What does this fold into?
Amino acid sequence: MHIAIGGDHAGFEYKTALVAHLQQTGHQVKDFGPFSADSVDYPDFAHPVAEAVASNACEIGILICGSGNGVAITANKHKQVRAALCWLPELAALAKQHNNANILCLPARFVSLEAALEMVNLFLTTAFEGGRHEKRVEKIAAGC
It folds into this structure.
């Protein structure tokens, strides 16, 4: 799977670990940065990840910042993006099952690395249920 990943300085450590994990499990990863823990502005990295997903250059995206809120808000400004802020594995699975989320947003300051890895694995392996959820997902972009 082609995966876009990015974040900010607060998410740098987790991003680095997630990139290694994803590559070890056979995924192709496009890392949009940052490439150090120096302070940066999260929109500079969230927008390129969202653009990669919206354009279908990457199948899914992962964004990591301190709270997860900033990257989620930024990514959701892009048409065709459904970015979900998750802090529990069950939420990551439901984001795919019910909302067909295509970007997982993680709050590095509020979840362990182990939980982040579990959420990523669930996000990658959980399928969209469709059915009654399909019409709801279609309504998300209304008015855009």
